[in-house]
Amino acid sequence: MTRATRSPEAGTGLVSTVAGVAVFLAFLFFAVQLLYNLYATSVVTATAYDAARSVASGEVDHTDPASVRAAQHRAELQLRDRLGRYSDRVVIDWRASDASTIRLHVTAENPDLLFHSAGLLGFDEIDRTVTVRVEEVR
Asked: Can you tell me whether residue 98 is helix, strand or coil?
């Protein structure tokens, strides 16, 4: 019986395959995090716009501060209801509003889904300000 001789390059395909799979998984994880961030940004922006628009509507008496505060409270409850569990990460600020415009500043903390990026990817926070003019009869 002759003994089989091994090539000096035996096993080198395994190293390059493992490296290729690792790079592919890293790109896949990055893409998932990017898509999650884009979806969360879209949903937070849309719900913030809807909340500001409902406060700026003509149905609210903007000459009465109590009426405006009640409308803001209703809009905030609706915003949090639409965001579900994600609303725990959202901070809402109406303080920049005045008599003619409603300004809603929303910040939300985006969770890292797969790995901790330490803020290197820029996906860790959503910061939006929505400005809507108050509806008035002309």
From this structure: coil
